[in-house]
Write a structure and sequence with these properties.
single chain; 369 residues; Aspartate Aminotransferase, domain 2; 41% helix; 14% strand; binds pyridoxal-5'-phosphate
Length: 369
């Protein structure tokens, strides 16, 4: 054997808020041979990772594994649990996505807007629920376009005061980075995608449905086929998936769940909180040095996984982004309406504060230049 030694794997320069950087050993886990998806091997693969997945979502319920991006499970939650009238809490681009999905599926949707970067407050939701009849509410936990973190536990409490209203939560940049307590917060449907805080390649979505949500689905008239949650429920109870799953990605998922089990979900949340706080403190330092950079989201409502920062006058988000790229670092320009005025740092997944510090040192040079 004359194998050429591989270059040492580099990790720690890719800070996009999705997809996030994937560890070499997790990428390598995908290279295992195929197995039949109706055989014992598949059942063992799912059964072995299920307790870890449940600890990540903090639930006793089974965790659905969907071979789709996260948007697939957003659509699933609307079709199965949306009923006829949905209240969509909208601020950034991703909340708006839920609203558009509802409309595209023939569901009557009412947007409840707050200014960009802000979050929804419980009293605002209470007032909206008093003023109209809804079957479901859609909300984004961590808004990836603004870095704002919605107070999901409080919103869930208000939602359930209103009776038979289901809360559908997009926690795509929440789960595995920000605290999510699916059971304790009594959430009706929570979903995420593989390529964000879970630090896996894109292509899988994971979701948890409360029994209330499954009951609602059973009564829905047109659940479709691919995203039928009643099917997801009955198959996952046998440790299977309704259709042929993205098996290679499931190997990566199993490997990553084992890593997260070793780290513990609490330590993972703490690591994300530390990275976020480091980023906010850095922005304050820059501000103190006369470089006008501010964290867009209000204090107390900032996501631990992604920070959206305004760029100093005379610079644009894309120019900062390009300058970082030239120095070997990937971050992101702003999203949608915020494209030019902001940059975003995805400090999520498997990154550490030390790697983030190295990035911030380079970013300080770029924005001061
Ligand atoms: C990335 C993201 C999505 C979309 O996920 P896809 O996997 O591209 O479908 C939805 N919501 C939020 C908050 C996201 O960050």
């Amino acid at each position: 054997m004359t194998a050429v030694p591989a270059a040492p794997p580099t990790f720690g320069r890719f800070f996009l808020p999705g997809p996030t950087e994937v560890r070499p050993e997790i990428l390598a886990a995908q290279a295992r041979p195929m197995i039949g998806h109706r055989g014992k091997g598949m059942e063992q693969l799912i059964a072995q990772m299920m307790p870890g997945l449940q600890r990540i979502f903090r639930t006793q319920r089974p965790v659905y594994i969907s071979s789709s991006s996260a948007t697939g499970l957003m659509e699933a939650s609307i079709r199965n649990c949306g009923g006829r009238r949905v209240l969509s809490l909208v601020t950034g681009s991703f909340r708006e996505r839920f609203y558009k999905i509802a409309l595209a599926n023939g569901v009557e949707a009412t947007p409840l807007e707050v200014p960009l970067g802000e979050v929804h407050r419980p009293e605002q939701l209470r007032a909206a629920l008093a003023a109209g009849r809804y079957d479901a509410i859609t909300v984004v936990h961590s808004e990836t376009s603004t870095g704002a973190l919605n107070p999901i536990a409080d919103l869930a409490r208000v939602a359930h005061e209103a009776g038979d209203v289901l809360l559908l939560v997009d926690s795509v940049t929440g789960v595995a980075g920000a605290r999510v307590e699916t059971d304790a917060w009594d959430l009706d449907f929570v979903l995420t995608g593989s390529q964000k805080a879970l630090a896996l390649p894109p292509g899988l979505a994971l979701g948890v449905a409360h029994p209330r949500a499954v009951d609602r689905a059973r009564k829905a008239s047109h659940r479709g086929i691919y995203f039928d949650l009643v099917e997801f429920e009955s198959f996952i109870l046998k440790h299977q998936t309704p259709n042929t799953p993205a098996l290679s990605l499931m190997y990566a998922l199993a490997a990553q769940v084992a890593r997260i089990e070793a780290e513990t979900i609490e330590a993972r949340w703490a690591r994300h909180a530390a990275m976020a706080e480091r980023t906010w403190a850095w922005a304050a330092e820059m501000h103190g040095r006369g470089v006008d950079m501010r964290v867009l989201a209000p204090e107390g409502f900032r996501s631990p996984t992604v920070t959206c920062l305004t760029v100093p006058a005379g610079k644009t988000g894309s120019a900062v982004n390009e300058a970082m790229k030239a120095r070997g670092y990937t971050i992101s320009a702003g999203y949608g309406a915020l494209k030019d005025q902001t940059i975003r740092i995805g400090h999520m997944g498997d990154h550490t504060v030390a790697e983030l510090d190295a990035l911030l040192a380079v970013l300080a040079e770029v924005v001061s230049a």
